[in-house]
Design a protein that fits this description.
344 residues, alpha+beta, 10 helices, 13 strands, globular, binds iron/sulfur cluster, DUF5787 family protein, DUF5787
């Protein structure tokens, strides 16, 4: 299977490489890797989280599912002693009924204590919520970094650098015998690092070191920019983003990564198709027998013309306990994802 010619495969290889080889700034950090996460406006391909190992282990108290923004508001502010929730929590900036929903959800997940005092709901925390992410690194995967790819990537990286939501921004490109042309680098912001990765051997070389971005300072979100034509004198539109808003967004992204990791690619594919396989290339990668190659997540859907559901016999006979190869694929990847999440 040629690993370098398809962006999706390159992305999975990059995640695998990062999981095993990423050198965190603090030597004792635990590295967690996820893919395809970000904000409403910007999604990163590969995301590396450098985590405080004790705080990450403590995070396991709250279960494997993410805490969304409503839950984070409750859990992070829950008092040590019983208190009426409206007096204990800061005003959320949205209606209190959503807070009540989050309290009920937290109670159902056993991560918050609740009781009734008349018609008031009182809450008490079970554990403090510790900040478990030290640094976030975003990596854009561009196996074929030619001039046109560099041109389209440039504005996206400028957006990331101006906002400074991640501590470092990188581009990973496929390693070839040719050097990355300096002219290509000119199209990319100097703050972005360039990694040259051999998708087959997983050898990597830093072509350009990134600068650390100011995540604790206000960021600039670029909303609109002039198209750059010679007669275009329009101004760019942008807005400031406060450090507090950035910190909240970083935590929400980290929580989603905690839940999903990067092996969840199978969740968006059709492992219940009879042509779906996981093949081992050191790591488990999807393979389509109908296409005789690795399929992308985009094409591996129910609308795929070659999709055929796995025969019922696979569920009832050969796979009596496990519920068919599709379920087995999911479990296999889930088990590997679990191993990356320290338990309490
Ligand atoms: S035939 Fe289509 S749906 Fe089935 S595994 Fe291949 S790409 Fe996925």
């Amino acid at each position: 299977m040629a690993l370098s010619d398809r962006e999706f495969l390159f992305e999975l290889r990059c995640c695998w490489w990062a999981e095993r080889n990423w050198q965190p700034a603090r030597a004792d950090s635990t590295v967690l890797v996820a893919r395809q996460l970000g904000t409403k406006r910007r999604r990163w391909d590969t995301i590396v989280f450098e985590c405080d190992p004790d705080a990450l282990a403590h995070r396991a108290n709250f279960g494997p599912e993410r805490l969304d923004s409503d839950l984070l508001h409750v859990i992070r502010n829950a008092p040590v002693e019983w208190a009426y929730y409206r007096e204990a929590l800061p005003h959320p900036g949205y209606p209190w009924r959503y807070v009540r929903d989050a309290i009920h959800e937290a109670d159902g997940r056993d991560i918050l204590e609740t009781r009734r005092a008349g018609n008031r709901i009182e809450i008490r925390r079970r554990w403090p919520y510790r900040e478990w992410v030290d640094r976030i690194i975003s990596i854009e995967n561009k196996p074929d970094l030619d001039a046109s790819a560099a041109r389209s990537l440039g504005p996206q990286l400028e957006y990331d650098v101006a906002l400074a939501l991640a501590d470092e921004v990188w581009v990973a490109t496929n390693r070839t015998d040719e050097r990355v042309q300096p002219a290509l680098l000119e199209g990319l912001p100097v703050q972005a690092g360039i990694l040259s990765l051999d998708a087959e051997s997983l050898e990597a070389e830093t072509v350009w070191h990134p600068r650390t971005l100011a995540v604790d300072e206000p960021g600039t979100r670029i909303l609109e920019r002039p198209d750059g034509g010679s007669h275009d004198a329009s101004a760019a539109r942008f807005e400031y983003v406060s450090p507090a808003a950035k910190a909240r967004r970083r935590l929400e992204i980290a929580e989603r990564a905690y839940e999903r990791g990067w092996r969840s690619f199978v969740d968006t594919m059709r492992p219940d198709c009879r042509h779906f396989e996981l093949r081992s290339q050191g790591q488990l990668l999807p393979f389509c027998r109908a296409k005789s190659r690795c399929q992308t997540a985009r094409e591996c859907r129910g609308s795929c013309p070659a999709f055929e559901p796995e025969p019922p016999a696979w569920r009832t006979k050969e796979w009596p306990i496990e519920g068919g190869p599709g379920k087995r694929c999911r479990r296999l990847l889930e088990a590997r994802r679990e191993r990356r999440r320290p338990r309490r």
